[in-house]
Amino acid sequence: MTEQLPPVLWMRNVDRWYGDGSSAVPALTDISLDIAPSQFTAIMGPSGSGKSTLLNIAAGLDNPSKGQVWLAGQPFHELSDDRRTQLRRDHIGFIFQAFNLVPTLTAGENILLPFDLAGRTPSIEDRERIDYLTQVLGLKDRITHRPAELSGGQQQRVAIARALAVRPHLVIADEPTGNLDTRTSREVLALLRSAAQEYHQTILMVTHDPVAASYADRILVVADGRIAGDYPAMPATEIARLMVNLEVGAA
Ligand SMILES: Nc1ncnc2c1ncn2[C@@H]1O[C@H](COP(=O)(O)OP(=O)(O)OP(=O)(O)O)[C@@H](O)[C@H]1O
Q1: 43-96: pLDDT as tens digits
Q2: Which of 5, 21, 54, 199 is the most exposed place for a label (fewest CB within 10 A)?
Q3: Residue 1 within a domain
Q4: CATH code of the domain in which 217 resides
Q5: Does residue 4 sit within a domain?
């Protein structure tokens, strides 16, 4: 019998609406979700369907209007801001479009920042992992540069190295390959997949790209703020067909 590990992320009957009364806009409606350890999940859906809202709530960056969100067995929805920040710091690595790199730090210092924040000195194994990541991500000769001296794609790669170096339980990625060329995109997606398979990290990734989603072992489709589909791994061509059908159905 396979052991059932408790979910890393657990959401129950989550609603999120903006505004009040008759002018309230529902962004998410009745979302219930279990994300298992080591699972690589892609979240897809049309523009405005609620993907970013879902990611922000999963990361404890936003509050549900109703319902429960548990991360690593802790009730995110009930915690103080300080406890949430600590929970995020201990468990989540972020790869967001806005990169959130510290402008005064070099690329190398930005990658080491999560260790500093956790008050942890990188071990030999951590150093080897950072070396490997900077090598694969083509950052070796950019390590002493500050973000302003890097291209958008290079900044994104620094953010990816930073999120993976400390090996957080959960990696939350919003269009992680959005600024990257095809070859680098494939490298990043392979890195995410190996983070799940070899390092047992859990990956939650929003993407519009069927090729990116084909690296995942679960595909969640969000439409009109609801989970409209929950699928196992699929080839990119099938995912593309699914998305076209969804958009045609909604038109
Ligand atoms: N701060 C806000 N105030 C009011 N409405 C908002 C706000 N943020 C999001 N919304 C609305 O919530 C819905 C979901 O938005 P969300 O950004 O989650 O969609 P998305 O699927 O990530 O879109 P995209 O793929 O275009 O990034 C949209 O109708 C959006 O207009």
Answers
A1: 999 999 999 999 999 998 899 999 999 998 888 888 888 998 888 888 898 888
A2: 21
A3: no
A4: 3.40.50.300
A5: no
First to last CA, the chain: 45
Q: How far is CA 7 from CA 33, 195, 199, in A?
A: 9, 17, 16
In this structure, the residue with its CA closest to atom 11 of ligand 1 is: 27
Residue 18 Cα to ligand 1 midpoint, Å, equals 9
CA of residue 168 to ligand 1 center, whole Å: 27
Q: What domain count does the chain have?
A: 1
3 inside domain: no
Query: How many A from CA of 128 to the centre of ligand 1?
Result: 40
Complex confidence, ipTM:
0.96
Q: Which amino acid residue places its CA nearest to atom 4 of ligand 1? A: 18
Check if 51 has its Cβ closer than 6 Å to any atom of ligand 1: yes
This prediction has a pTM of: 0.90
